[in-house]
Write a structure and sequence with these properties.
Elements (H helix, E strand, L loop, with lengths): L2 H12 L12 H4 L2 H20 L4 H14 L4 H13 L5 H9 L5 H20 L5 H18 L14 H18 L1 H25 L6 H20 L1
Helix pairs in contact: 3-4, 3-8, 4-7, 5-6, 5-7, 5-11, 7-11, 8-9, 8-10, 8-11, 9-10, 10-11
Amino acid sequence: MSALRSVRAAFSYFSILPVGVAGPPDGAMMAWLPLVGAVVGALSGGAAYLVSLAAPHALAVATAFGASIVLTGAIHLDGFLDGCDAFFASATPERRREILDDPGHGTFALAGFAVAGAVWISALWSIPPQRYVLTLATAAAAARLAAVAYARVVPYGDGEGPSVPMLVLSAALVGACATLAGLVRGAAALACGVAAAVACMTWIRPRLGGRLTGDAYGFTIVVAEVAMLAAFGA
């Protein structure tokens, strides 16, 4: 698959942007996930900033929160909700994988969304709207980079993880966004996001018997993105 086709496939699978239909993700597609995050984050932040020019701050926050979920087709949030039900359950790895395959959501998912949503919205409330574009782009891209980089250690499904050159390119993109968002604050936010992603993956892996699934990556991306936004808003 050419690089251009991989980019298009990544936007097709990980967002609702009108770029056509793609198959299940593989290592080449996942390498572009940070770019998808940067674009989705910038679009969400841009929409929220425009709303802030003509409406109360609360509506700008609601736009940033809602657009960040809608533009991804809620794919990562769905993984987070499934992950809450599976990872917090007192069950065997086999039973946890069965829970991940269940399309319904239970009590742990509702509780997890209540907690993550409250922190997510509070963090967006603390960030000035004029910083939304760069801040949301940085947080979304870095959260995805931290997650997919882990695929070099534990490959996604039965396929190979993203290549090292593509990860380096994605890291350069995230570094540029973080620098533009504010060097010191951006570095602190990146550190929080990476720490959150590593903690999630390390915690999840034994709960699934040593393998990671798409829901595990979705769970990690949501936690890391919220952690970075909280750091930006602190």
